[in-house]
């Protein structure tokens, strides 16, 4: 299998199918990054005839609790932990939440007078991924490389980058033949819907020195032949030059 075994199109398709399946009656999934911000929109809720809608009142709720509430000719009111941490756009109905925390996760819904009822949206707050940790072992002539991603493994995916062939591959582990070039590196890429991270590992660190020497003999053994050809070529050129001088 080639090193870039997941193409960009396949990755994109899997994200859209796995996370934004509009055909089901489940809440739409929206993803925010810890300590960052996210905007929830009525457009996410599949509400009909929303394009030219004029709001006279807006209420956003998380579960049964109010997040933001506005009535025409009045100021917007924010509730609980969202006070000074949320902004409501009175024209679009968009709700933006800042400095996201894990407790912000949950089901959100907008309510407005005469507004058709739409689906709820479920907000997930995920970590900004740190670099994955790589470890390896050598057994029976094969190198096994393992990748440890984030502790928060929800929606966590793995991808491997290597200029060679895999003997075996799983989500967070690959196995390589002993015949690979030990001077190569292999990289593990972890990603979730809000971030991505990558760590490399040099294969030479995975193989005992005795096995590295045996592998090197195969490469070194070809050097004398190359040298002989090079010297022979120089001699022929030199001899031809002497003939021409005569």
TrEMBL record:
Keywords: Glycoprotein, Membrane, Signal, Transmembrane, Transmembrane helix. InterPro entries: CD2/SLAM_rcpt, Ig-like_dom_sf, Ig-like_fold. The keyword Cell inner membrane does not apply. Its main location: membrane. GO terms for molecular function: signaling receptor binding. The lineage of its organism: Eukaryota, Metazoa, Chordata, Craniata, Vertebrata. It comes from Sarcophilus harrisii. Gene3D superfamilies: Immunoglobulins (2.60.40.10). The chain crosses the membrane at residues 217-237. It comes from the Eukaryota. The keyword Transmembrane applies. Residues 1-27 form the signal peptide. It is found in: Membrane. One of its GO terms (cellular component) is membrane. This is CD58 molecule.
